[in-house]
Amino acid sequence: MSYAAARPSACPACDAAPAAEALAARAPLPGARLLISVPAVHCAGCISSIERDLAQMEGVNSARLNLTLKRLSVDARAGIAAQDVIARLDRLGYEAHEMDAGTLSMTETEKQGRDLLMRVGVSGFAMMNVMLLSVAVWAGAEGATRDLFHLISALIAIPTVAFAGQPFFRNAWRALRAGRMDMDGPISFAILLTLFISLYESLLSGEHAYFEAVVMLIFFLLVGRYLDFRARAVARSAAQELAALEVPRATRLRDGAEATVAVADLAVGDVVLVRPGGRVPVDGVVVAGQSEIDRALLTGETLPVFAAEGHVVSAGEVNLTGPLQVRVTAAGKDSSLHQMADLVANAESARLRYTTIAERAAAAYAPTIPIVSLAAFVIWYWISGGDLRLSMNIAVASLIITCPCALGLAVPAVVTSASGKLFRKGLLIKDGTALERLAEVDTVIFDKTGTLTLGTPAPTNLDQHGAEVLAVALALSEGSSHPLAQALARALRDRGLAPAVLDRVSEVAGYGIEAQWQGAQVRLGRAAWVGATPRSVTAAYLAIGAQTHAFTFADQLRPGAAEVVAALQAQGKAVKLMSGDVPAAVGDLAARLGIADWQAEALPQDKAAAITALHDAGHKVLMVGDGLNDTVALSVAHVSISPASALDAARAASDMVLLGRELSPVADALRLSKTAMQRIRENLWQSGIYNIIFVPIALFGFATPLWAAFVMSISSITVTLNALRLK
Hints:
By secondary structure, this protein is an alpha+beta fold. It has five domains: 14-105, 2-Layer Sandwich (Alpha-Beta Plaits), CATH 3.30.70.100; 110-235 and 352-413 and 683-724, no CATH class; 249-334, Distorted Sandwich (Calcium-transporting ATPase, cytoplasmic transduction domain A), CATH 2.70.150.10; 426-454 and 558-672, HAD superfamily/HAD-like (Rossmann fold), CATH 3.40.50.1000; 457-557, 3-Layer(aba) Sandwich (Calcium-transporting ATPase, cytoplasmic domain N). 51% of the residues lie in helices and 18% in strands. It has 28 helices and 26 strands. The strands form five sheets. The chain has a seven-stranded mixed β-sheet with strand order 14-26-25-24-15-22-23, with helices on both faces. Helix 8 packs antiparallel against helix 14, helix 17 packs across helix 27 and helix 27 (664-699) runs antiparallel to helix 28 (705-724). The chain is elongated. The relative contact order is 0.09.
């Protein structure tokens, strides 16, 4: 069945979406007991309808919906379960699932984001008020009126600087205590020096004060830092989205009794009940029941898959139609879902070569900024004949305009934006350096079984057999557990055929299955056992009396395999196929995909040796494989990718993991990596050109502190926005 059932409208006020921005920052209630993800909300009407309806629910004290996080916090009395709230939301037309409030409601990441956003708001509000007062001064206010406006501006600016500037002051103090100078040092020095000069001028009835400049400087710096934080949070948000799919509690079955327990308390071998509509809480094997499973959020598969006794299910999947009893194979931190979330979280902490260059440049550049500013002060003090105010203004402008913020933002914003985009396309980056290495690839080597193919055989010549032959084959294959027999039975059932009626069905271990049909002996199994001539391709053989029939099989292509090979060849990459399978099977697949360079019966050491030889010849190889025999090749390749269905050893050896069945993200990743490296180079060049142009302007006295603050902040924001173009 399709998982596209009609739902009532969940958005009665979609046209009011702009108004929702004013509500986006509503934080969850402190101490809320239930935390629920509601991914469909996106406007003011959604917030209003949900909060109004839950306010009328018996046992609910209050409910707050955070539109930005699409997260509902519910303060409820004891006895109200998350499933009760979810059921009520479902009646409203909103899909929802429970989140673990203990780990997600107040993460350090969210605290940091809210803290920065709050300081942006405070500094922005103060900046507008100080600017209003400055307009009066610029309009010609003089004497006592001008001094009054300056002092009022000081009363606004000083507490604003003390509060909003804390992120810069803390970092600068920490660096100085460690005996080094980072980019926040010059920033803090510029802020405090500008504030001191402005206060000094105001107390001495000076004509000029720069309270608006210092508050504007903090505002633009905080905006740039918040944009950087949001860019860095892309990969982290992906990890949180995966973690949000984890179910905190499960229904354990023991001695026929049900008990709700924390998932962390489950042990391997326990049996849990997953009701229709519920999310699977653990990795496990179905031991009773049958249903359809929705894996769309994890793998991108649009159609549900059948699950019955013996089928494997994973944490985060949704049970659609019937109750399932699942024996636990992994739970909590050991589940595949949790490990996938950890991989995403680890990806953002990796470093590229370009990142190292940017950080080294910023580290070398930052200590020179105070020296340049001091030199500007000394030189202009001498040139101006002792004009302290002019010299100080030029020194402060030079200090502000040379802040290396844009240089520090040049790389991480690009890396995290690219990582987030690839994750949404279905490719998980485990190692951040893989993005840079991927951009250098000129050769792609694919494994066959499980990589270019799904590893599931499918019959290829059913149309060559008559209806009676197919009916007998279906009846025999349904009684066997052999993979080829199961594939044959599945294909015949899909054609709507009915099995023949057999007598005395029995299975001969290692050979096949036999029975009686209309007085004749029928067999399905090995060629020699049924008396058939073996084929050079994979086949199962059927004997009906003295007549024999062969059912040939070919591995099913992984979705997107042909397209990704064509796309890589169009990009100018050399594409090779290396497999441990027999030459006939490998050659047939290579011909189907248009791969001219292929090798069959390749041992693990053969694959590794071939990749090493290509590296020695100056090529950069991407290896895509999934088996234990690919582990060495994945490790020695310049960069490597494995499907999520790969063995644990192969996934551990690879730099990236394909989350779904589709292979198309491989070509997307190669294309996006080129774009990402181009964006990084653009950002580094932009930072360099900015300094070449504007530092002399400041040193020659053509920039006021206000103008310098504006230009420097615009440079940082431009770098971040250039990175976000990847999205």
